[in-house]
Amino acid sequence: MAYLTEFSKCAAVENNLGESFNAAIRVARTNPVVEMLEEIRRRVLVSNEKERKESEKAKGIYTPRARALLDQQIELAKN
Question: Can you tell me the mean pLDDT for 51-61?
Answer without folding.
Answer: 82
